[in-house]
Amino acid sequence: MCRKLNAYEAELTVTHVNGEEIVFIYGLADTDSSEFDRTATVVEAVIDESLSVGPLQRMYKGCEVNRFRHGSVIVIFDIYLTRESIPEDRITTAFTQALRGNMLGTNQTLTVIPSSFQVQEKVESAEDPWYNHPFYIALLCAGGVAAVAVCAISVYCCKFRKTGRNKPVSVYNTAESTPDLRGNSPGPIELNFVVTNTSDRPMDRSFAPLVKME
């Protein structure tokens, strides 16, 4: 069965690494740099060796360097234990017992300022609800814009179709006036016009009398 690890954030000032004086340089501030990686690897190895024995040996599960800070070189790192919560002074006691003067480690060594060691339980902040995540909000906004665009296109298409169906009939003026037999009054007026087809169905385009006005 997996056991949840409890994290403690620790801070320690280091003056020498493997006997060589260490000074803070720009590379130590960049977690992707070779200087950071090389120095963090040595620090983690020495802390592992020091805390995996003694009072914490049954609960110690490792450490991880988070960053370096100026002030000689201050190391900020996490210590992982299997116990959910223990007093910080127990970790300080384990650190003190691992010291040889002002040095930690055997194969690789760190020269430190013992009084600079500080540790406190790390409180993880609660995660925001999924619906407050920026990615979800961006997707929601994009979906809303897309929905509005689809509605606008649908309304436009409906109006366009209605306009096509109600298109006015083109009328060509072919009015003719026919006198009666006595020549006194005009005869019936016959209007002939052509209907322009706006549908897909074939239509008879021949001239045909539609209305006669007496």
UniProtKB/TrEMBL annotation:
Record-linked Gene3D superfamilies: SEA domain (3.30.70.960)
SUPFAM superfamilies per record: SEA domain
Ranges annotated as spanning the membrane: 135-158
InterPro entries, per the entry: SEA_dom (IPR000082), SEA_dom_sf (IPR036364)
Keywords recorded for this protein, A-Z: Membrane, Transmembrane, Transmembrane helix
Domain (SEA): residue spans on this chain: 4-124
Protein name: Uncharacterized protein LOC109476734
Origin species: Branchiostoma belcheri (Amphioxus)
Gene responsible for this protein: LOC109476734
